Amino acid sequence: MIGNGMAGARTVEEILARGGRDMFDITMIGDEPYGNYNRIMLSHVLAGAARTDDEDIILNPMSWYRENGVTLHVGDRAVRLDRFAKTVTCESERVVGYDILVVATGSNTFFPNMDGLREPDGRLGRGVFGFRTIADTNGMLQLAQSRDGVTAVVIGGGLLGLEAAYGLRTQGLTVDVVHSPGHLMNQQLDERGGQVLRAKIEALGVGVHTAMRTTAVLRDDRGAVTGVAFTDGTSLPADMVVVTAGIRPNTELARAGGLVVERGIVVDDQMRCEDEGSVYAVGECAQHRGELYGLVAPVWEQAVVLAEHLTGANPAAAYSGSSSTTKLKVAGLDVAAMGVKGPEQDGDEFVQFYDSRTGVYKNVVVRAGRLIGATLMGETGKAPLLTQVFEGRVDLPEDRLSLLFDLAGVGETASAADLPEDTQVCNCNGVTKGDLVACVHAGARTLTEVCAKTRAGKGCGSCKSLVADVVAAAARGDLAADPAADWYVPCIPMTKAELIAAIRERDLRAVSQVFAALAEGGREDATAKMPLASLLRTVWGPDWVDERGALFINDRVHANIQRDGTFSVVPQMRGGVTTPDQLRRIADVADKYAVPLVKVTGGQRIDLLGVRKEDLPKVWGDLDMPSGYAYGKSMRTVKTCVGSDFCRFGLGDSTSLGIALEERFQGLETPAKLKLAVAGCPRNCSEALCKDLGVVAVGDGRWEVYVGGAAGAHIRKGDLLATVDSAAAVVELAGRFIQHYREDAKWLERTYDWVPRVGLERLQALLIRDEEGIVAGLDERMATAVAGYRDPWRERSAPKSPAQFAPALPLLPLPQVPVR
Predict the structure, then answer these.
(1) FRET pair for 416, CA 20 to 30 Å: which of 353, 661, 668, 704?
(2) pLDDT tens-digit series, residues 528-574
(3) Cα three-residue angle 36-38-40, rounded to 5 degrees
């Protein structure tokens, strides 16, 4: 198998599912240094909603290949195909022989010819990116986070371009999208739909420029990107250019090896290459009956046919092409499209609805009593019904409007139970209704279990409601509530409250003790170690038993690991206030240890990036400042404005209150990171309204306390918990809120999820009115936790283990922190 992407890996999965492990010795060649990952999720990574090492993006980790007897050569591009000797030669000069060859080389980003795009040797120029790989995504993130005020231009306003723009905008960049056609997503939407989408994209703060053709990437004397130029002589400034002007099948290897190539590698209905007996192609590189497919669902169908054919499970298996139905999520907006975009003949019926304010656009096109096209944007609940009507499986209703809306007196034409078994429910992972029903009939009793076994809903997430409907219908009322949904960790069948009670009752102070006493069979679960270590520190404070293997690297060395294996150090500056002496020490340390990047953070702190692991104890010693806790799941910082000290609008001493809060709660272990801010007046210069806990002075000694705010990948204004009459009351209420959050929230559940889940009225009843009598206990346990504070950087003189600060070598060459 040449190609370890989604098509190649899915084909191997289908072969293995049909007994292929006993039939074949399977070798896969991939030019990226990873297991198989979900490219659809790269937009989530760019937006900060997922990580490249997260289970949401990694489909097949390295262990999967070993467990299934698959030989995997990663980071080694196939460069030569010899069909007569039946060998494939890799970039490393490795030669791999084959009896059956499957080419799944996918597609590459199409880069139009324009000045300044490439280096003289043909490589893509500095500051220019595609959007196809983890490397592309990480490169954009690195440049986006390298300094404040980075601007980006995305060339191409299709699905991928808008996802790139949305992700970069979420990272705080100024972003413009340039699209040469007259409206956005012209492949899926008509002009009116494009106008509605444009209004939605512009509302996100993204500039949109249509009917504009880019002619050059502009650079300064040092070769850095400064902007892009257009055919009309105008230009846009930019520090980064992302090209998403389409994709082209990756056919260079196939063409050089003598395979028949037109737009793609020509294949028949068994995915066999033309005039070949033992060479096949699958995925975006394959051309079938003159068609190329760039969507996931057709690739999954091809993989099944090829697996059926190669294993002999169904010798009659044949691929006859895929219908042009698409279900997407664009910049947070659901889109479903099938068939034609609008009327093409005089007799075509056309029903259209649009609302630019809400971003909703819908249309259907009917010809000769048959649905030949439909588009839904913003509201896609009718997509399953439209798909069935489009494919001729459900009769077209007489009232065409009922295809777009639920009308009084008009029943649903098809429910989840009525959908045919081969209906594709999850496009991202190729899961049909039949797959979901079979999973339920095989014994899966909860929605979580079904999703885990089938991967349904694990991609863009737009199918989750339909997945739930199908599973509920298949279970016929016998769908069990998922008890594991409330467990704190998967391996221990207890809620967080039950687990805390058991830990206290049995005096369990080490993670290994918790596993031995409470986990099923006493088995350890690696994924449960970090949340259990956090919980033990919450329950016992400094009296927990510190087992180094239960901690993430950040918590073991008290610094934040970076992508190149170095660490960032953030000394504490309470309330963002510092002194000339502290600044001198920071500058001296940066010089002494050749720190590549010194950066002022959004939380009013100074970050030293690029510190080697072995230098950490010496850096902390020379700084002689407490830890700023920028690395852990803990209370991080309290951001402040200057308040009444200097500001002529200040209504309260925000600086003193911010320092008091940070002194009180410094280093507290929490389920997820916790950020605070204090504003000296409602002008909100310290952004207190969008913090986990924010405090705003409103005059006459009164302070408003807001909770559950967010300003990262998720944007949420905090809820007003209470208005109190003194700074002391703020500290007291903040302690109660934080302690209740520590004891009640799930692992990694930020307050912006926890507060809505618990409910503001419930929090007010518990923490303000004390209706259940828990306040005294919260105050007591918070006081105990605060009294147990110890600066972790003191470990520099007494390491917890010999390897704690030993040099660490990365397994792969990684990008270096740039020297600024």
Answers:
(1) 353
(2) 888 999 999 999 988 999 887 788 888 888 998 886 778 999 999 99
(3) 155
Nearest to 103 by CA among 74, 75, 131, 83: 83
* 87 Cβ neighbours under 8 A, 6+ residues apart: 81, 95, 96, 97, 98
CB 496 within 8 A of CB 518: no
How far is C-alpha 477 from the chain's CA centre?
Answer: 33
Helix, strand or coil, per DSSP, at residue 475: helix
Helices (H), 392-525: 433-441, 447-454, 464-475, 496-506, 511-518
| Distance of alpha carbon 162 from alpha carbon 171, whole angstroms | 14
| Token pair 């320092």: residue | 659
679 sits in which H/E element: strand 674-679
The C-alpha angle 413, 417, 422, rounded to 5 degrees, equals: 95
Report the distance separating Cα 418 and Cα 415, nearest Å: 5
Query: Following CA atoms 149, 150, 153, 157 in sequence, which dihedral angle do they give, to the nearest 10 degrees?
Result: -80
Tokens of 155: 């060339």
Could you report the per-residue pLDDT of 489-529, keeping only the tens digit for each? 988 999 999 999 999 999 999 999 999 999 988 988 877 88
In sequence order, which residues have a C-beta less than 8 Å from that of residue 518 and are 6 or more positions away? Answer: 492, 494, 499, 502, 508
Q: Which of 155, 431, 150, 171 is nearest to 304 (CA)?
A: 431
Least Cα distance to 288 among 303, 302, 308, 306 occurs for 302
Q: Tell me how far apart the alpha carbons of residues 425 and 432 are, in angstroms, rounded to a whole number.
A: 5
Q: For the purposes of burial, counting CB atoms within 10 Å of the CB of 554, is it exposed (0-12), middle (13-18) or buried (19 or more)?
A: middle
The predicted pLDDT at position 811 comes to 44
Write 92-98 long-range contacts (CB < 8 A, 24+): 96/27, 96/29, 98/27, 98/278
Name, in order, each residue with C-beta under 8 angstroms of 22's C-beta and a sequence gap of 6 or more: none
Backbone angles phi, psi at 696, to 5 degrees: -130, 125
Contacts of 176 (CB under 8 A, 6+ apart): 151, 152, 153, 154, 206, 207, 208, 209, 236, 238
- Residue 165 near residue 177, CB atoms below 8 Å: yes
CA 563-568-574 angle, to 5 degrees, is 145
Cα gap 712→166, rounded to integer Å: 13
**3-state DSSP percent of the chain in helix, strand and coil, to 5:** 35, 25, 45
On whether the CB atoms of residues 357 and 375 are closer than 8 A, the answer is no
Q: Which residue carries 């169904």 as its tokens?
A: 314
Give the HSE-up count for residue 59: Cα atoms under 13 Å, Cβ half-sphere. Answer: 24
Amino acid at 426: C
Between the alpha carbon of residue 782 and those of residues 150, 280, 736, 740, 778, the distances in Å are 41, 65, 7, 9, 6
Cβ 805 vs Cβ 557: under 8 Å? yes
pLDDT tens digits along 233-265: 999 999 999 999 999 999 999 999 999 999 999
The CA-atom distances, in angstroms, between 378 and each of 185, 188, 297, 567 are: 14, 14, 21, 42
What one-character-per-residue DSSP string does 573-620 give? -GGG---HHHHHHHHHHHHHTT-SEEEE-TTS-EEEEEE-GGGHHHHH
Task: Please state, as a whole number, how many other Cβ atoms lie within 10 Å of the Cβ of residue 408.
Answer: 4
Quick one: tokens of 283?
């995925």
Taking the C-alpha atoms of residue 78 and residue 100, their distance in angstroms, rounded to an integer, is 16
In whole angstroms, how far apart are CA 355 and each of 166, 198, 200, 362, 374? Answer: 21, 12, 10, 9, 17
